[in-house]
Design brief:
Blueprint lengths: L1 E5 L4 H14 L3 E4 L8 H8 L5 E4 L2 E2 L5 H14 L4 E6 L3 H7 L7 H21 L8 E2 L4 E2 L17 E6 L2 H10 L2 E4 L5 H18 L8 E9 L4 H19 L5 H6 L3 H12 L3 H4 L5 H7 E3 L2 H12 L5 E5 L6 H13 L1
Parallel strand pairs: 1-2, 1-12, 2-3, 3-5, 4-5, 5-8, 8-9, 9-10, 10-11, 10-12
Antiparallel strand pairs: 6-7
Helix pairs in contact: 1-2, 3-5, 5-6, 6-7, 13-14
């Protein structure tokens, strides 16, 4: 199992955080697209690391043209000497239309075509045969003009890997059809992964005539831990609050329904609209917390993670929405590698 960490998205902190991730033994380190550009820190990280895989988890696809993303990913793949992973996500309609002022519609079909467009562009650049024309003509994207002046040099490595973040079965199936990896949402359980998400992923793999070994499964796993009782209490509250936040979203109700907790989503949604953010944590009882998170003392985290997810996922990261001791996580990495 690969173990992934994060890179600070503030540019003057990216180098140090990337070096620390590599020294700590992480397999990969990822940026997220929140308040900063997700790609720029990876260029800094690539310069200051040697083996660490570097990726976005995620970059918002529909905020950008496939051509723009193809260029950025190509350059990062070349500069990192083949260590870049392009993690994409769709975001949701209000953000695409109101924040990015871009078009929304048919997100699953659009995403499938988006990834196909990326590969068509990359294959054209790699072939460097300008006697032929770039020819990608889809329902959502059309790329039919490319001249030598605008074509980057062929890569000395393979094309970038493309991972796709998905929650619903349809988008998860798209990941199985056209991507190298699927990024699960943290708001999931082992039962939901096994019963719903992974079968949807494998259905997409089968539809495309691929093998399941061609698609990596990545999971940000909620973890509640601490070295004292006070730290455990604080970690539990912060994690329950984060789970409650996700649980208030109607699009995620299916995960709660799978366990018979659908009524909790309705209550959480009501409380979120009333701004009762801290109180929402109380809706997440012990049974729910144990389903969504590994709750263990530091020395027991690795065993619990492997027991729960070892046969389900290929990559794991630590989703701990609270301040923790960095040395604690280094110990968990060592235990996971030893296990």
């Amino acid at each position: 199992m690969k173990i992934d960490g994060g890179i600070n998205f503030v540019l003057d902190k990216a180098a140090d955080s990337a070096r620390e991730a590599e020294q700590a033994g992480y397999s990969g380190a990822f940026t997220a697209e929140t308040s900063h550009d997700p790609f720029l820190p990876l260029a800094v990280a690539a310069e200051h690391t040697d083996k660490l895989e570097l990726g976005t988890s995620i970059a918002v696809a529909f905020a950008r043209s496939p051509m723009t993303v193809a260029n950025t990913a190509w350059d990062l793949q070349a500069f990192s000497k083949g260590r870049f992973i392009l993690g994409l996500g769709s975001q949701i309609k209000p953000h695409i239309e109101k924040r990015f002022s871009m078009e929304w519609g048919n997100p699953g079909s659009r995403m499938r075509e988006y990834v196909q467009a990326l590969h068509a562009i990359w294959d054209y650049w790699q072939a460097a045969d300008f006697s032929s024309r770039l020819s990608f003509d889809g329902d959502f994207y059309k790329h039919t003009l490319m001249t030598p002046m605008f074509s980057p040099e062929p890569l000395e490595t393979a094309k970038p890997k493309v991972f796709l973040a998905a929650v619903g079965p349809y988008m998860t199936g798209v990941a199985g059809e056209v991507c190298d990896g699927w990024i699960s949402h943290g708001f999931t359980t082992a039962a939901y992964l096994e019963d719903v998400s992974i079968p949807a992923l494998h259905a997409g793999v089968t539809k495309a005539g691929r093998d399941t070994s061609e698609v990596e499964i990545s999971l940000p796993a909620f973890i509640v831990t601490g070295e004292t009782e006070e730290e455990m209490t604080a970690a539990s509250f912060a994690t329950r609050k984060q789970i409650a936040f996700y649980g208030s979203t109607p699009a995620y109700k299916a995960v709660l329904d799978h366990h018979g907790w659908g009524d909790a989503q309705i209550e959480l949604n009501r409380m979120s609209k009333a701004g009762e953010w801290d109180a929402m944590a109380d809706v997440i009882d012990t049974e729910m917390l144990d389903a969504f998170a590994v709750v263990a003392e530091p020395q027991g985290i690795a065993e619990s993670l492997l027991g729960r997810y070892g046969n389900l996922v290929d990559r794991i990261s630590f989703y701990a929405p609270y301040a923790g001791n960095p040395e604690l996580w280094s110990g968990v990495i060592s235990d996971l590698k030893a296990g």
